[in-house]
Amino acid sequence: MSDAVLSLQAVDRVYTGIGQPLQVLKAASLDIRPGELVGMVAPSGAGKSTLLHIAGLLEYPDGGDVLVGGQSCAAMDDNGRTGARRDSLGFIYQFHHLLPEFTAQENVALPQMLAGRSKRQANDKAAQLLDSVGLKERMKHRPARLSGGEQQRVAIARAIANDPLVLLADEPTGNLDPGTSAVVFDMLLGLVRDRGMSALIATHNPELAKRMDRVVTLKDGGLVSV
C-alpha cells in the first residue's frame, strides 16, 4: 500500500466544446510522499493548472482518481471534497487572491476560523505566521498597502495556516520581479521544509524547480520525471 499523501492515479481530463475534443491529461499519475517537494515544469498550455486543479479537488477528472491522505476522492460529493480541501490541502496561486477589505492578519485568520478555530486562536496563529514571513509590522495593513512581494508572503502564510498535508502552488512567484521572486521562493521552501509538509509546485523556472527533491513534466498528457 502506498504511503503517498497525494496520489494521482491514471487521471484523464478532456475538454469539449467547439471543434474536436482536447485531451489535456492522459493517464497522468504521480505519488507525493510525506515531506517531499516536487517541482513541475512544462510549457504554457500543457495542462499544469488543470492538473493542480484536479489534485486540489477543484475540478473533477474525466477518468482516474485522486487520493488525499490515502482516501479516494473519486466518489466524494461536493461537501466531502470541500472538507478534504480545507483539512488537507493548501493553495498558492500566481496572483495572491487576498480579500481586499481585510487586513493581512484577517486574511490569514479567516481560513482557520472556517476550519473551526476561535477568532482569538486564529488571530494569534496568523500573527505568528506573518512574523515568520517578515510581516510583523505590516499585519494590520490591507493588501492595497502592501507590495506585490508582501502580498504573496501573506498568501503563503494563509496557505499553510491550517497545516495542510500538501501544499499546491501554481507559479507562486511568476508575477514578481526576479529579485523579489528569489526572496519569496526561498521563504516558501524554508517554511514548507521546516514544517515537514509535502508540496507540488509548478514553475516556469527550471533553476527554481531543481531546488526541490525531484522534478516532473507533462508529456503527451502524462507525468514523467525530468
TrEMBL record:
Claim: RNA-binding is one of the keywords in the record: no
Entry keyword set: ATP-binding, Cell inner membrane, Cell membrane, Membrane, Nucleotide-binding, Transport
Pfam families given in the database record: ABC_tran
Entry annotated with the keyword Transit peptide: no
Domain of life: Bacteria
Coiled coil: none
GO terms, molecular function: ATP binding; ATP hydrolysis activity; transmembrane transporter activity
CDD domains given in the database record: ABC_MJ0796_LolCDE_FtsE (cd03255)
Any one cellular-component term (Gene Ontology): membrane protein complex
Gene Ontology BP terms: lipoprotein localization to outer membrane; protein localization to outer membrane
InterPro entries: AAA+_ATPase, ABC_transporter-like_ATP-bd, ABC_transporter-like_CS, ABC_transpr_LolD-like, MacB-like_ATP-bd, P-loop_NTPase
SUPFAM superfamilies, A to Z: P-loop containing nucleoside triphosphate hydrolases (SSF52540)
Family as reported in the entry's similarity comment: Belongs to the ABC transporter superfamily. Macrolide exporter (TC 3.A.1.122) family.
Protein name in the entry: ABC transporter ATP-binding protein
Organism: Hwanghaeella grinnelliae
